[in-house]
Design goal:
By secondary structure, this protein is α+β, with helices and mostly antiparallel strands. It has three domains: 81 residues, Carboxypeptidase-like, regulatory domain (Immunoglobulin-like); 143 residues, Tetratricopeptide repeat domain (Serine Threonine Protein Phosphatase 5, Tetratricopeptide repeat), CATH 1.25.40.10; 84 residues, Serine Threonine Protein Phosphatase 5, Tetratricopeptide repeat. The protein has 15 helices and seven strands. The relative contact order is 0.05.
Length: 341
């Protein structure tokens, strides 16, 4: 009986011996939208000895590593264009540790840090990074206003962005971040110059920013328009003329600019110059209704009744509900004009 009992117990003992002595880690690397990130990498590293394993995720963002000792590993996830994540993980014995990692871009990381007030370690450790985040956030808020030509509303935000980013460069510890910030500051500086030239209390203050932007791109039309406005505010007639000619070289004559100069001449009583400018406006833009109306007014003052009538009629043809339409109709009721054929 003893021999039989031992024989029956033996298989049970054999079944226990092969028990698993390692663990596994598996998971997925994705972006904020839940999409897989091509080129993402996972690095597992033992800190108690010299051992490192690099994993490249598959097209679905998945990764798997088997045969790991049930120990602590440094777990690093990175991908081009995203903030690196690093943490410690404990591999379970005879089981799988599942990790879903969401990587954020630098912009997403900054926005999240500002929104939650929970600045991550890279921002806390670097005094310039918080300024960088605040500056970029202010600039991003200004851009929709700038695109709608709401320069007065955009200006305070752009000023804040420029100030914060300049301070960030001085205080930032991360040399790579500092190098990346340089071109961004130039973008902000350009927009600051344009907004200041259009809505600043002292438009001429935009000149240094705009001149540097023009050096970088001699065909930047919004910058040249800003230089025209800033030069005019400064009383620099030569500068205004120079940049106007530069703009016309790129775009052709600007009817608005010519018309506005005509209005200035008209309001100052220089009707002879105003007439030349209104005619030039219509040569560039034959459907510029308001130029016809003011030209008619000049012609009336010069007693050119035929010219007065034809220009008033053209104005009403183009702008029957224009701001001067009623006045034009009243003028045409003048007996001296009614008999003109």
């Amino acid at each position: 009986m003893r021999r039989l009992t031992l024989a029956l117990m033996l298989p049970v003992i054999c079944m226990i011996l092969p028990a698993e002595s390692t663990g596994r880690i598996a998971g997925r690397i994705q972006n904020k939208a839940g999409d897989a990130i091509p080129g993402a990498k996972v690095i597992l590293k033992r800190l108690d000895r010299n051992w490192t394993k690099e994993l490249v995720v598959d097209k679905n963002g998945g990764f798997l590593q088997v045969g790991l000792e049930p120990q602590e590993f440094e777990f690093t996830v990175s991908a081009p264009g995203y903030i690196e994540q690093k943490s410690m993980v404990k591999i379970p014995l005879a089981d799988v540790l599942k990790k879903i990692v969401i990587l954020l871009t630098k912009e997403e990381n900054r926005a999240q840090a500002i929104a939650t007030g929970a600045l991550n370690a890279t921002i806390v450790d670097d005094p310039g990074a918080a300024l960088n985040a605040e500056g970029r956030d202010a600039f991003n808020s200004a851009i929709p206003l700038y695109n709608e030509s709401k320069f007065g509303e955009a200006l305070p935000l752009v000023e804040k962005a420029y100030k914060n980013l300049l301070e960030a460069v001085d205080k930032m510890k991360d040399e790579k971040e500092k190098a990346e910030l340089g071109p961004e500051i130039l973008k902000v500086e350009r927009v600051l110059g344009i907004c200041t030239s259009q809505a600043g209390a002292a438009k001429e203050a935009a000149l240094p920013y705009l001149l540097r932007a023009l050096e970088r791109n001699a065909k930047d039309q919004p910058v040249i328009v800003g230089l025209i406005a800033a030069s005019k505010a400064k009383g620099d007639a030569a500068g205004e003329q120079k940049y106007t000619a530069m703009l016309e070289t790129l775009t052709g004559p600007n009817p608005d600019t010519i018309y506005n100069k005509g209005v200035e001449a008209f309001n100052s009583g220089n009707t002879k110059e105003a007439k030349v400018l209104f005619i030039k406006t219509l040569q560039v833009a034959p459907t510029y209704a308001e130029a016809y109306y003011l030209l008619a007014t000049v012609e009336y003052g010069d007693n050119n009744l035929r010219g007065t009538k034809s220009n008033l009629e053209k104005y009403l043809e183009l702008a029957p509900k224009g701001k001067n339409a009623e006045m034009a109709r009243e003028m045409l009721k003048d007996p001296s004009l009614k008999k003109i054929k």
